[in-house]
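User: Structure tokens for this complex, please. No commentary.
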Amino acid sequence: MPADPRRVAPRARPAATPSLLYLPDLEAAGAILELPSEDARYVARVCRARAGETVYATDGRGALARLRLASVTAKVSAEVVAVEHVERPRSLVLWCGAPEHGRADWLVEKLAELGVARFQPLECAGEPWPEGRARIERWRRLAVAAMRQSRRAFLMEIGSPVPLAAAIEAMERPVLCWVADPDGSPAEPGLRPGALDIGAIGPSGGFAARERERLGAAGFLPLRLSDGRLRTETAAISLAAWWAAAGPRRA
Amino acid sequence: MPADPRRVAPRARPAATPSLLYLPDLEAAGAILELPSEDARYVARVCRARAGETVYATDGRGALARLRLASVTAKVSAEVVAVEHVERPRSLVLWCGAPEHGRADWLVEKLAELGVARFQPLECAGEPWPEGRARIERWRRLAVAAMRQSRRAFLMEIGSPVPLAAAIEAMERPVLCWVADPDGSPAEPGLRPGALDIGAIGPSGGFAARERERLGAAGFLPLRLSDGRLRTETAAISLAAWWAAAGPRRA
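Assistant:
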């Protein structure tokens, strides 16, 4: 179940921070941790939390923890009170060709906010992703911020760009596969996401005919997301939103 | 039907420009128009179109036209060859509280791209929209650009901010009303948009309890768009994407 972090066992307490902390090295209950400088600043300066108050944290790999602030001075330390591990009942992997310049950052932010498990950039014919280590680092920071903001227990994975053929080759099965296509079927009640979905979005110029054939041969179902032409980033977030809205009931 | 502008009667021809032109004063077939300077620049400089080629245009009020470029020099003129008027089979009006600073522009762009009929900013308790004539003008330009890009025949209307009570008072009926709510129902197959929908999205701090009560009393159904907490702009685009994906089959 997608757990509400405020319900971390054994009993919920109000949080002193609206967003989760991100503690990749979260330990078992009883441990006392010194918060990384960014989280310490958020706790002490942004939220003005005080010793004794409760905060919630994730390790980005499914653990949600409730902590009690032990000391809030120039440094901030906290005691892990309780930890639970949440299951991810279903996952969406998003394959995406390159959008127009300057439109990828918010795409990454929004996909992470909507709970996409993995963002996989696709190298499509004639439309490469720009190179750059700085870009990957920036995306990772955006994904962490979105995870904290949306109070999720899983950090969105970000792949390095791969050609379509390699992505198809590496597909896990069984999966339900969708390709955004203006000539596809609208999302009628019978079309529903499953436990593991892959959504493929073409680059700004669209998939080439050969790429579209490859996707069809690999079982990708054409899904019409809108009656107008959508930009790459809009189609990607629309597919993720359609997937997210069809989620299971909250426990 | 949401018409494909490439099919404007009497017969389609390939377009010299990937986006529609926006000609608010579009006339009947036979008329010769001089294009406004921005469209002229797009036709001549960006797309390098030539006299004799075909372009498509809308007036933003449902007319789609096929034109033949008559002259492409410092000025660009075109003859209206055929005009059709498209119907809008269903409409979404989006009421939206203020998102965090700097996040409204792309929200407006994406809602227009997804075909929202009207964007109605809501003045919510303690979360006013910033003042500014410049902002309204910028939003209108973004809505025009998104309409052209997505090849739509209707320009998204943009309202001036109003309090929730006034928006409810002015509601057209019959409508289906949705309010984004993390405690609502997921978009199960039974929950489908209708012919005229209103979606309400809270400001960055969420709707106040009293506002939520008012929406409930006015018949707004709580819709859970995600199992995480969404930012205002993400919830708004998610609701529009859910609505857009459930569209009717293309003719």
